[in-house]
Amino acid sequence: MEIKVARSAGFCWGVKRAVNMAVETLKESKNTRCLGELIHNKREIERLKKLGMSFIEGMDELKEGDTVIIRSHGVSPKVIKKLKEKGTHIVDATCPFVKDVHEKAMKLEREGYPVLILGNPDHPEVIGIAGHIKEPMIASTIEEVEALPKMTKLGVVCQTTLNLNFFKEAIALLSSKVKELKVYNTICSATSIRQKEAKELAGKVDVMLIIGGKNSSNTTKLYQISKSVNPRSYHIESKEEIKEEWFRGARSIGITAGASTPKWVIDEVVSHLSTLFKGGELSGRGVCQTAGREL
User: Fold this and answer.
1) Overall pTM > 0.85
2) Per-residue pLDDT tens for 173-223?
3) How many CA atoms lie within 13 A of 249 on its CB side?
4) In Å, how far are 45, 79, 188, 194, 273 from 161, measured between CA atoms?
5) Which one in 34, 218, 250, 272 has a CA-CA gap of 20 to 30 Å to 291?
6) Which domains occur in the chain, in start order?
């Protein structure tokens, strides 16, 4: 069985930065809390818990002097203000690319543009972006974009992990509804690269595995893109979810992973597949194992 791993699979720079900041903070302060999940990956969250990190959803239990890490998705200015009022020590692990979206959204508002955010309204990143402007509009589907009224002017930013095809379709539609349209394509380059690689690799292999949290927006989009190209695509969080019947009659497996998936989880999956097929047979066909990063 040939195993191909996408070159950019796994942690992006922003996620790696956030995790490193969290680990270093834990070395200095054992009473460290993270407001929400640092990243959307259960296995990495469990690892951080073992190192002493605790995760909270609200701020009521915080005390003066506590160390609080801001998740990679960012938060609104109101949250930062409340944390300061409580006297906490803030470690801001917001991805710089997300901070750039905040700046662009506020810039559009200062210039007099109503601001539309393309993204999932329930995602913490989008909630954080919306918190930086006074009257945000949010659209997550083409139907929602179509439902927007015709406007004289409109500014647009988007969730950093947005599907590129949706972004293009939405902007094309808005260009016919808005006289003065100012658009910032704030999809992170890491997201675009991973989506491109997933599409290309899915078309070259028999079976595709997408590794990452089921609650991870960017991983879910990789799965959707892969599935549209290759019906034998499977979204998994760990090697324990792999089913041998997925690979019947297959000669090649492609692997990619979301930007919040650590390398050690990807390595576990590759090692498991190598052991599963090494010197064995699947559906009566001989298999051999070769693993490496391609694309």
Assistant:
1) no
2) 999 999 999 999 999 988 889 999 999 999 999 999 999 999 888 899 999
3) 1
4) 20, 23, 7, 10, 29
5) 218
6) 2-10+190-294 (3.40.1010.20), 13-95 (3.40.50.11270), 97-187 (3.40.1010.20)
